[in-house]
Structure formats: structure tokens, C-alpha cells
Amino acid sequence: MESFEELGSHLLVVYDGHCVLCNRSVRWLLARDRRDRLRFAPSTSPKVAELLARQGTVVADSASGPASILVIRDLNGPAERLLVRSDAAVALLAELPRPWPTVAVALGLFPRPLRDLGYRLVARWRYRIWGRLENCPIPTAEERSRFL
Question: What pLDDT does 62 receive?
């Protein structure tokens, strides 16, 4: 496992480890990230809370968990940037092999308020539709190096 200081050019993906949809999304990203550009951390990690506190962001906005996937670019670098909701999803798609960067460009053509509205609707209903896990799943031995 890498530490936050060793991420380099990798994007850090902070996700809700108890959300079935979020875990499936992480699995989907892992299967497609052939250029090894992404690193993952569950939102329940104390290190994640510290990291986001300096950004002025609180991970969980309610008892139901975080309302958004978070992506951090250039962690600990001069251009560090926190992306949330649909901006985070677009950034993740842009890092994957074709055809996903094209999908990211197409999604980026929609105004952010409209994209975020769709994102918020899914986020609001995700536990009711896909369910909630009692424990954050443990990555496989092959995946472990991609999680913080």
C-alpha cells in the first residue's frame, strides 16, 4: 500500500465503502484502469478525514454516508484539486482507455448543475436500490497495492 505522500500523478478516489453501488463502481474502475492511474481509499479512513479537513471538506454529510465520490488530483502538489459529484465522475472516465474519455467529453458538454442533479438523485436513492454493506470489503491480494 502506498501512503498519501507517495501518490505522485495518481488520482485518489475516495468512496463510500458501505455502499454497494460505490463498491461496484470501484470494481468497475479497477477492471478498466489499465494505465494504473487510480488509487482508492474508503471515506471511513481517518487519513482521508485529515486530508479533507485541510480542504475544508467533511466526508460524511449524514448518517447515510458521504453524498459524493471524491477525486483528488495532484495530492500534496501545488495544483492539488478536489473534485466532487459529476466532476469527479467525468475526471475518472477521462483517465480510462477508449471509449471512456469520449464519454467524459460528452458528459462535460452538459452544464454542471444538470449533471450534478442526476448525480444527487442517484446518491439519494443508492442505499434503497443497491443496498448497504455492514463492512467495507477487503481488496484482493492483487488489488491491495491500489488501495490506501
Answer: 44
